[in-house]
Specification:
Chain lengths: 510, 510, 510, 510
């Protein structure tokens, strides 16, 4: 059993990198009612700062609009949907982390597309027109939201150009050209706008040095670097689903750390680094996303990732998502923290737990993070350490003992409020399996699933001596637990005797 | 341990009497924001049909308004607030069970008042003016809401006239006169309006025969009879609170049954009988209302009360209530199912559980009620049987074993969804005591209390053989548990193997 | 000037056919946030009973889902989106008028598509699979919503099969085969489900006799007949828009009436007839939809259409619509009563005015409809009569004089409340043109446009003598006006003298 | 006719004093549903910074709670309601301007009360206990909301102590003692909290010098001075109402200016000055509050008051108010900007118009205020100048001609958006009188009244030459008009010809 004496003095500050950004389904989906309901819930319980997703420039957002009729020919830039999307984000307190892509069909040089929704992944037919499009987008945003606002929006050039299905031929040369044209176009509008890339997928270490060389050689602006991190192996398809092997959580932290090492000594050293996508699986139909394992395996990543990068963006906040066609079942292994119908998955709760942590880190380890906030409240996040596919299966329980600093010398009691998520608690997926995996649950079954998604809650009064309380936690398999602890200021008046409530106390005899 | 083979065929129908009506704080309080929020919650989870409370005619609703200025003198009937109150009820799908009282000061014959808010409890100075007031109220309601609507509102004459603090001198003669004048005034507006009384408190058996005699002798209309039921003994005050002894739950059922016995053979025999107030304690500052005991003790009453009366109205739906001055603490022993800030008490959950029961009763006993609804879902309400003050303390646990009929011969599995309320679950009062009983919890503490008020939830897959599943329930002290059971229609496709989610299954090897 | 003495006794009853049904953009769009907000507004102000649109079976609703992976092959029917759509409609009090179409690509016999969103318009590759799909849809609906509910949903087979772009080759034979297979499949699920067609466009009179012959010869069930009506001529395209000539409003009424004449004497005589689409223009980019002309020209159609058919469904309730790609501007000639951002167009107000009419028709003419409701309120809808393109331009004003029966012999005054929509009032389109037609109005400009969309309101006190009041209305060009009239019950007390409010009255001298 | 050439360069900055603070009914009423709905509307359209009202310490908020039971005796400070009130204000973005009063009955030295709700107006029985109460209130606020927050809340000592009905005997000496004790108590908690007074009514010039002398002599802290301003003469009662004579609007500005003159040369010179109440009438039952005259007469006060004081707080934001018993009619001459049922009165619109003004003042005169905001939008507020009772009656109309600077040399057109309020527009009171003054309007009549309360709107395209547009405004009697003007950036494409919409243009021939 882990046994820790949590120091009373902070050992560090908890970075906000974990909630700096979150991923979203393609931008057209941001027009949806369930998307909006999901984002409201996420923002009210977690509060991300930025949102990033594909498809801003794709046909179904409708910005790039060539015309040719009645003797008139030209290109219109239309923001009918783009405005609705961004207006709605800003209303919910979240800003765009702009990803420029994919290619509008009217500007594309080829027919190759990605995903069910057919994002065109070919270079522009004309780089001048591309630059004009980029500038139209940025200028319109400035017109509508103001320069001060738009300067806060990172602008990322394309998505995973190192993969052949996201960028025709995965051509480095073509990407670098696109990057240069885009960066110049953006900076031409306003020099303080932030532009970056190369938004590469895992396994593309060989892109970093050439990218650094290229931008150095041609003096191309780069305000941040971006890349992705995932821990699953190759897809093993079944109908409407995928299984994959899993690498251990540490793999994600290793991936976060790697670019900084590779860029040391280059012009890009020290730039802000954004993991613009991460999760276990990169597949939108892998049921691991729906499990408590997902939460337990990411807990140490959220606890430590901020030491390595400036943001790491969970891919994605909800299952309103359609890369592989429309989901055929309420649970379908989607990327989201929230399932369809706003069902909260275990990883949603992990994030909601993180949102309750304090700023001051008191202790951090392989199975715990302890913080304190300005009001003195101490918060413990604990989890069962899990490995990947090759690790031995996790045991049925895991125990920690912590000595928690709380209150002051006069404190005699602390209130401890525990919220737990594991295979049985806060787990609608488990309940749904027991229900027989109804693809389209009835309205009544949806009510049951929502109830089943609520974390288990329990409260205790801890004895405090010398400003310390002992907290022993036994975690179930794949459990993530939050314990919120505050020193009790006892307001009980002397005349109260709870035994008298049932009229049974001797001293209560009328 | 109780061991029951629940029959597959219904033994009866569950009456709706338990949710026919609910009590409310004085009507002026219905104008409040927290009242509205509380009633919305109650209606969405429970759905009462009628609401009854004091003070419709009291000065703070402002209906009876004599004037004398600039040479003009008369009485105005003003419905500024009354309309807001009733409009708001009807919007939430609940109708008034009108209680006519207390006396407007401009019509009162004396100064005696009851409660902190000073309801005048003296007879009218002029019975003709009283009749005019009653008719003005009824006619205005018909004007605004239509005759069909108002004919559905029972009209009850006064409240607990057998008690000296509710009716000056507790004069039976004066009450009978008031009743007669009122009933005549109401029927004069429309003969199908429903009028009744005498709304007496417990311990007034001696009022029934005289009331029956009086209305028979003078041929006074009576459409229903009404009375109250409570189980606590005398108040033992402490500052801002009261302790009392408790009689066992059966006492309530006995009280429900008594008037029918006393009225047998009179003209009032067989009339609808409404318990227009009931609870354990009749004090608004007795902490028993906040406990799991309250729920456990009322569970058998809700299960059986409908056999005895046409309605029994829990006093009251929320703690927006001021009989004994303004509560000084968030929990204060108030009557409500909901505490301040819409904190759900155990008895709220008991009612919400009842709202999920089916129409067909399969079994009913001292610790359980089993029903089935039209869709085939079986619902078990189980509770620990509790006694009163003089009973031995309840044991720490109570067990039941039930053989439940579910599905048909082909069914192999059932989903069981359990919601529990006891000292530890669904119990904000326990959490609040551990927090040191903060009179004014911080906004953060209120969040914790709301979480603590959520029932414990757990799910299981029950094996079904021959259309039957075995359900064993172990209840904690003062627990009330709801188990919702439905036959599983398994939609799991043949290609799913959950072991592969973690990539560990032999057959998942890539 | 029209001068009418409105009779006090009703001459008829106003049919509800005008609000029986309304059109919608393709069903996938029903998932959108702005669609939901628009439908809420429409339902709160108008209250349609049914909604009909294309694309239930198209790929972007995702019902028909063949699979072939890991050795498993088959077809899944998935209702993930369909359930969200129908759940949401029912929540807003509107039922589906199901249109079965277009063809899922996995079941299509060819590649021909219609619209930007590529609805496949070819016959099924296999009619047995089509029947299986239809039955799966109907059975799922019954499972989820109950048989009693689904029996109330008309089921229409396909859309405008007489046009080559909606049905490959416009083949009558192929359509009749589809109809027969579909009707049989539906009735096989439940004989009381209602099925109908042929949903033909204007100009297809030659389909009626063959359709009647076919269903008679083969004894195919038909529960209702359906068809469409529009008044515009051929499209004259400009970029992002279309102009067309207009036929006069009477043309719509003639179209409504025609099928009944053609079907006289056939087996289809007397069946319910539904105009499942109508408007002036059949183009989603014709600005006439945004004008006051649209409202003025449809006013007589709404007033009289119910005499001819059982429903006529305005195409469509809002501009969340994408037949011709994504709109490039907030106003774009869309079909909707509501523009983007829920801007109310004049025709929205026409419908909202109709929703305030009473049941009893007192008078009806070329420029007016006068009704009375159960409470005695008299409502006048008046409009400037307009012609089509070939008619001389409408004059700048149009006047009516009406003698209105109101109150009784004792009534001395009536309150008249006028709401007007014309080129200047209730007309956001006019304001938008004055603003310079901003394609993407700023948030502030949207506020101004919403204000400009509010009808002009004015109130008057009419003198009443002998139960009659004279009402003279002068209408502006293209005006539609609603006047709501109620007899005044004067509650003014004798002591009020409004001149004293400013302290100026002689008798107010202190 | 006024004819003004509005300069293009600002002549000053518009102070925010007009929306710094607003008055409210007694604090207990802040618990009400209609209060909350009203404040939401006011905050969304106007956005006040602070709210001030009576009764924080009165019994019906329940803070001061002596107890004596079961051998326990003492005083509890209870914040059950106070927290709900302040929580709710802060949620709506408005802060308390704390008024300390009236006296809790448990601390009062006498029985004298004011108003229907019986606020006790006697000095404390014990000044030490009073100081303890004040400190308990302030400390609790700091605990709950933080010191930074509470330092922003002005703390005003009592209300109108110069009047015998608000302060027993109107004793200056007793007030000064109360002030001193209170200020010391507040500063003892935190020296940066702001305390002030003397909150005197109009006509108490003789209090200023003694107050300055007293606080100087005894070195008592004063952070701001406060006083009230009204323009009506003595009350002339009728049943449920009051008439009064009116002084001209300039009288208010004179009252605002007076204390600064009287305090010149004293220690109080230059302190922030707050008019903590102002309106025309000081009676809650004077119908002038409901009229367009009220708006027209206060328009110049809002335009200029900020030059004289730091805030002037309209008394009050809504008619949820009960000084003279419960209103007997929906309109009753209440103080509010909003009537019951959130009916917007003309003065509400005046404030909403002010909320749309820019920061830069371009022109200001007896009938107009012209501003420009950062985006270049020009806003004109114009009103008919009105006098008081002794002035000749206002003429039926009033005209202005303004030359408005708009856009730049390239601008050819401006959009002008006019919103008007007068006897006929934005005037539910007029409509209500025509309806026969229904005391309790039906739900349908309420809908009509809400429609009638909407300002008249009209739009125009102004021709712009040389950066200037001519605007001619003809105002009705008692009209207040807002005109919002912005330069048009014309996006009309060359292919649009509106004449073709109706298919009538020659060039549209197909």
């Amino acid at each position: 059993m882990t046994s820790i004496v949590v120091p009373a003095d902070p050992v560090g500050t908890l970075s906000d990198a974990w909630r700096q950004c979150v991923g979203t389904g393609r931008l057209n989906l941001a027009l949806r009612q369930d998307y909006r309901a999901s984002l409201e819930l996420v923002q009210s319980q977690i509060g991300f700062r930025y949102v990033r997703g594909h498809g801003l420039l794709s046909d179904d957002v409708g910005i790039h609009r060539p015309y040719d009729a009645a003797g008139h020919r030209g290109t219109q830039y239309a923001f009918t949907y783009a405005d609705q999307i961004v207006d709605s984000w800003l209303e919910l307190g979240i800003r765009p982390f702009l990803e420029l892509g994919f290619m509008p069909s009217g500007l594309a040089s080829g027919d190759q597309t990605v995903f069910w929704w057919k994002g065109n992944v070919t270079p522009p037919r004309d780089h001048g027109e591309w630059a004009a499009l980029v500038q139209a987008v940025v200028r319109h945003a400035i017109d509508r939201y103001g320069l001060d606002e738009v300067r806060q929006w990172p602008i990322e050039v394309w998505n995973e150009p190192n993969l052949v299905h996201f960028w025709q031929g995965a051509s480095q040369e073509a990407y670098f050209r696109l990057y240069e044209v885009t960066a110049a176009a953006v900076k031409d509008v306003d020099a303080e706008l932030q532009v970056g890339g190369p938004a590469i997928s895992p396994g593309a270490d060989d892109w970093w040095a050439p990218f650094a060389d290229f931008v150095t050689a041609r003096d191309v602006p780069v305000d941040f670097v971006s890349f992705h991190a995932y821990t699953t192996g190759p897809a093993q398809p079944v109908p409407f689903g995928t299984y994959q092997t899993l690498r251990p959580p540490q793999s994600l932290l290793d991936q976060f750390a790697r670019p900084a090492k590779l860029l040391a000594g280059t012009r890009l050293e020290g730039l802000p680094a954004h993991v613009t996508e991460f999760s276990t699986s990169y597949r939108p139909d892998n049921p691991v996303h729906d499990t408590a394992y997902q939460a337990a395996s990411l807990a140490p990543v959220l606890a430590q990732g901020g030491d390595l990068v400036d943001s790491f963006s969970y891919w994605t906040f909800c299952d309103v998502f359609e890369e592989e066609n429309i989901p055929t079942s309420v649970f379908h292994g989607g990327f989201g923290m929230l399932g369809h119908r706003q069902l909260r998955k275990p990883v949603f709760h992990l994030y909601a737990f993180m949102a309750r942590m304090g700023d001051a880190v008191l202790a951090r380890g392989a199975d715990h993070l302890v913080t304190r906030d300005a009001s003195g409240r101490v918060t413990v996040l604990a989890w069962q350490p899990v490995g990947g596919t090759d690790a031995p299966d996790e045991p049925g329980s895991h125990a920690l003992r912590l000595s928690i600093p709380v209150g002051d010398a006069t404190t005699t009691s602390a209130y401890a409020h525990r919220s737990r998520v594991d295979d049985e608690h806060g787990n609608a997926f488990t309940a749904w399996r027991r229900l027989g995996r109804p693809a389209s649950p009835s309205r009544r079954q949806l009510d049951l699933l929502h109830e089943a998604s609520e974390p288990g809650r329990s409260t205790t009064a801890l004895e405090v001596t010398g400003g310390r309380a002992d907290l022993t936690l036994t975690l179930s398999r794949h459990e993530v637990t939050l314990v919120e602890i505050e020193a009790v200021r006892d307001e009980t008046p002397p005349w109260l005797h709870d035994a008298r409530i049932l009229g049974r106390a001797a001293d209560g005899t009328p």
